[in-house]
Amino acid sequence: MDYEHISRREFVADTGKKILTAALLAPMAGFGVHAMSQSIPALLNPIVLDLNKPEYRALAAVGGAVKVPHPMAPNKPIMVTRIDEATVAAFSVICPHLGCKVGLPQNGIITCPCHGSTFDMTGKVTKGPAKTNLYQFDAVLDGSIVTITQKKS
Questions:
Q1: Most buried by CB count within 10 Å: which residue of 54, 62, 89, 110?
Q2: CA-to-CA distance for 141 and 74, rounded, in angstroms?
Q3: Across the strands, what pairs with 101?
Q4: Per-residue b/e over 28-63, b at no fewer than 16 CB within 10 Å?
């Protein structure tokens, strides 16, 4: 638009259209920014859990689960689940859809309270809108000790 030869009415109408467009697009851009801000920092040191301690006793039984603080981001905990007698899984509680925190499993299903995405006990997505799994960590069970480390690519 040639702003040197524009009437006041045209200027106001053009400016109004731009403001309306920005107002409509801002929430969509905000969702993308929010989801990106939920990135999970790397574990610099292993996390070691002793299943004999009361706070981790739920992991002694198959199907049990606990949340533990991420040492680099306490507001982004790590969920640890007991898959079978010899296997545990560890993954972020941050849903990859829009960054909400998933709850502990109920009947083997982990659910995101925001939009209903579900995940299995290993953190794999079973129902959307999430399209990717929960961020995975390596977890090893050795007797009554669980060691959680950064996933190797």
A1: 110
A2: 23
A3: 94
A4: eeeeeeeeeebebeebeeebebebeeeebebbeeee
